[in-house]
Amino acid sequence: MAIKATIHKAQLQLADMDRNVYADIAVTIARHPSENDERMMVRVLALALGWPADTSQGTLEFAKDMWEPDEPALWHKNFSDEIMHWVEVGQPDDKRLMKASGRARRVSLFAFQSSTPVWWSGIATKLTRANNLHIWQIPHEQSQALAKLAQRTMQLQITVQDGTVWVNDGSESLEITPQRLMGED
C-alpha cells in the first residue's frame, strides 16, 4: 500500500514592502512522503515571495511536482489556464527549466541545498536563452533554520524589505537573505 501525503496547514501574514504586496494567505500543504521539512518550508517561502500583487487573475498555488513530473512545485494559472508563473524548488536540470520557460510567462527557482554552487556552475551557461527565468539561492544554513519552524499547523508572519526576508512563528524569528543567481525584476 502506498504511503499517503501528510497534510500541513499554514496561515501566512505576508508584508512584502519591496513589491507592496500585503496578504493573509491560508494554505493546505500536501507533503509527499519523500519530502523533508526543509523542502516543504522552502515551498512555503517560495509561495510568499511569488505571491502576485494582483490576484484578480488567480493566485500562486501548490502543484503536484513530486507526484506529477510535468508539474512544478507551485504555479499561478490564470482563469484561461495559461501558466503565469512556474516555480521550482531544488536543483532541476537545464532541460526542465528550459521547458518551463517555454510554457510559462515567468519561471522562478529557489535552490537551497549546500551543493547549489557546484550545481549552478554546471548549469548556468545552458540557461542564457531563458529571459523569463529567475533563480535564487537560499543559503543552506538559513533553509535548515526555516525547516525547524515546520509544524502540522503553522501561523507565520513573513516580512520582506530590501531583499531580506524575516519569518516569525510567534516564538522564533529568522532572517533569510535570498541571493539572486539569474534574472532581473
Automatic annotation (TrEMBL):
UniProt cross-references to InterPro entries, sorted A to Z: Restrct_endonuc-II-like (IPR011335), YaeQ (IPR009822), YaeQ_sf (IPR038590)
Protein name per UniProt: Uncharacterized protein YaeQ
UniProt lineage: Bacteria, Pseudomonadati, Pseudomonadota, Betaproteobacteria, Burkholderiales
Pfam families assigned to the protein according to its UniProt record, in alphabetical order: YaeQ
